[in-house]
């Protein structure tokens, strides 16, 4: 995979010397993101396996923390494979990767806030309207 | 144009006054993403904003599900199909997942063949991706029809918490819309590849900029994102 990394620091240093940007960008696009087809097939196979695993979680009726943790693990692994290999984020510069991947992580703060809020709503509903439907 | 010379801090060039000066500053060649073309960077930023949209949908679903006193309908049973005399839980959703993942695989390979300038394989793989995407939307239409005939509405359903219907229709509806738009654009880009637009650098219909095979990769980014969103919907809505 290392030889497929066409856009390292050296590549940019090469391009910085160009007088005109457009031809450099065009030439760059040609050497960009060329990986062996086998890589995609392997990632594809892994996505199938992971999807089958997460379906099995439901099929065998696992429940509780085991179910939730397995669902989350398979979900994160699948998302990571798609972003890193199919969307080529593994070969992009860190400036782009951080700019795109960090902000969604901050949504977790929002999640925490809404968990508190929803718990409070449930508490007031149970307190003032009783437990029954 | 020479981007390396204008990035020194403190070096300011004379600029026109007023709005022209503002426009000159914002249009000057200052790039944060050095080797990423504007098209790709903008697609990533669009996908980031779309992430927040779907994030908010899933958050509202989470809030509704935590805060309701009424039991949530069991998705494993709701989405079961009767095949060969026995109920198989969630089978349609599992098949939809495999279809969408396969479409992502063919798309990734289309991008690869695009950069190798293999027009034929690129176009065929993109059309295959579009066909799989259309299959996915068809199965989703079947799923909606089945649930609506069973009495699921945004305001109620036969099995439990009323918020189930509204969450389901909003989340899967928005995702299905994204898939449909993706299929349309896949066909458009596949036609351009087939015609050789990216070899002859024919100008596009929308931006009238010269086309490059990078357009296939940008199209691919959108398509993989649709698959990515489905991974989260599958985990949180159908499996949780």
Protein architecture, described:
The complex is a heterodimer of chains A (133) and B (240). Chain A is an all-alpha fold. Chain A has helices spanning 9-16, 21-31, 37-59, 65-86, 94-105, 107-129. Chain A folds into 2 domains: 2-92, no CATH class; 93-133. Chain A contains 6 helices and no strands. Chain A is flat and about 60 Å long. Residues 1-31 of chain A have low confidence and may be disordered. Chain B folds into 2 domains: 1-30, no CATH class; 37-239, Four Helix Bundle (Hemerythrin (Met), subunit A) (Up-down Bundle). Chain B has helices spanning 18-27, 38-67, 75-78, 91-115, 119-149, 163-195, 197-200, 214-239, and strands at residues 81-83, 86-88. In chain B, helix 4 packs antiparallel against helix 5, helix 4 packs antiparallel against helix 8 and helix 6 (163-195) runs antiparallel to helix 8 (214-239).
Classified in CATH, the superfamily of the largest domain in chain B is Cytochrome c oxidase, subunit III, four-helix bundle
Low-confidence stretches of chain B: 1-9
Helix content class of chain B: 55-70%
Individual helix count of chain B: 8
Q: Give the structural class of chain A.
A: mainly alpha
């Amino acid at each position: 995979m290392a030889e497929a990394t066409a856009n390292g620091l050296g590549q940019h240093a090469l391009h910085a010397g160009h007088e005109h940007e457009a031809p450099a960008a065009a030439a760059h696009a040609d050497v960009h993101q060329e990986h062996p087809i086998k890589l995609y097939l392997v990632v594809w196979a892994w996505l199938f396996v992971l999807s089958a695993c997460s379906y099995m979680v439901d099929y065998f009726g696992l429940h509780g923390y085991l179910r939730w943790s397995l669902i989350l693990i398979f979900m994160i692994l699948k998302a990571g494979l798609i972003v890193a290999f199919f969307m080529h984020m593994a070969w992009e510069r860190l400036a782009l990767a951080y700019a795109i991947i960090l902000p969604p992580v901050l949504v977790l703060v929002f999640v925490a806030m809404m968990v508190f809020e929803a718990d409070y709503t449930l508490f007031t509903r149970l307190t003032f309207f009783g437990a029954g439907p | 144009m020479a981007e390396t010379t204008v990035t020194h801090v403190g070096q300011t060039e004379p600029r026109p006054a007023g709005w022209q000066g503002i426009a000159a500053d914002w249009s000057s060649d200052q790039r944060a993403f050095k080797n990423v073309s504007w098209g790709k960077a903008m697609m990533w930023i669009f996908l980031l904003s779309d992430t927040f949209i779907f994030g908010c949908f899933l958050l509202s679903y989470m809030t509704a599900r935590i805060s309701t006193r009424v039991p949530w309908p069991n998705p494993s049973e709701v989405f079961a199909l009767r095949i060969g005399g026995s109920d198989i839980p969630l089978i349609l959703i599992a098949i939809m997942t495999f279809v969408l993942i396969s479409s992502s695989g063919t798309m990734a390979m289309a991008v690869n063949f695009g950069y190798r300038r293999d027009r034929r394989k690129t176009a065929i793989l993109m059309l295959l991706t579009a066909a799989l995407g259309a299959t996915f939307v068809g199965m989703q239409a079947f799923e909606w029809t089945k649930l609506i005939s069973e009495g699921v509405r945004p305001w109620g359903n036969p099995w439990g918490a009323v918020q189930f219907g509204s969450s389901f229709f909003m989340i899967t509806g928005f995702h299905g819309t994204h898939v449909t738009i993706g299929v349309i654009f896949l066909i458009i880009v596949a036609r351009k590849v087939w015609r050789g637009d990216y070899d002859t650098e024919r100008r596009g219909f929308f931006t009238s900029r010269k086309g490059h095979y990078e357009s296939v990769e940008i199209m691919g980014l959108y398509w993989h994102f649709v698959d990515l969103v489905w991974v989260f919907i599958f985990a949180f809505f159908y499996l949780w």
